[in-house]
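S.,

Sequence below, as promised.
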Amino acid sequence: MTEQVRSTADATIAFDTRGAGTAVVLVDGAFGSRAGGANAALADLLAPHFTVHRYDRRGRGESSDAPPSVEGEIADLAAVIDAVGGSACVFGTSSGGNLVLRAAADGVAMSKIAVWEPNFLVGNSRPPLPADYVERLNSLVGSDRRSDAVEYFMTAAVGLPAEFVGPMRETPMWPALTAQAHTLAYDGTIVAPDMAGAPISASDWVAVEAPTLVVDGGSTPWLSKGADALAEALGNAHRETLAGQQHDVEAAALAPTLIAFFGQG
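The prediction came back faster than expected:
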């Protein structure tokens, strides 16, 4: 059953609930929504253990759109947490992990936090996001070049070679990606400060007091290096690696780790 909550940032956010027990809110990364994405299968595996809440981030699924801003997306997440009891365990995948951490640093009530391969670039292990990355995405979408915007995300943010992306345009998944193209700039706005290659400063995250689990798959070196640095910068963090998992992690591999972490006293 779909419920809706009004964010203080003037967005109406749709979410659903299943299961029973401790509240767990799942936060998607780029392209993810309740209609699909990395957290869909994960919710099914967590529901026998927790009350699991999934929501459509602004501009996706059944949620309304609103101007992109980090503050707005934090307010959206806070509204969902308020609606499900005022505090929750929160899991974020990829750029959703960056959003969760920024919300926690801003004072949003979370009892525990888990993040899967959040987008933190430390050093020169890959090129940083271009300085005009968000501006260019908005320009492409504004010119109705949504496919080009998705391709730009795949090359500039994900790091795929252009020759790999061309054939993807012919796959059945492509129309669903282009439908979400306008939200890529939203994720870009969130991760841009963390994707410049600068060291992670503990002072930026001192307000994150909740126990935090930082998990990666060890298959993407720059993400692993960023996860190491993030865990070191956080004051109350535990670090795990699910060896061999790609960025698009298998729910069956990740679920036991989250069940153990969120379920412990």
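The radius of gyration is 17 Å.

Coffee later?
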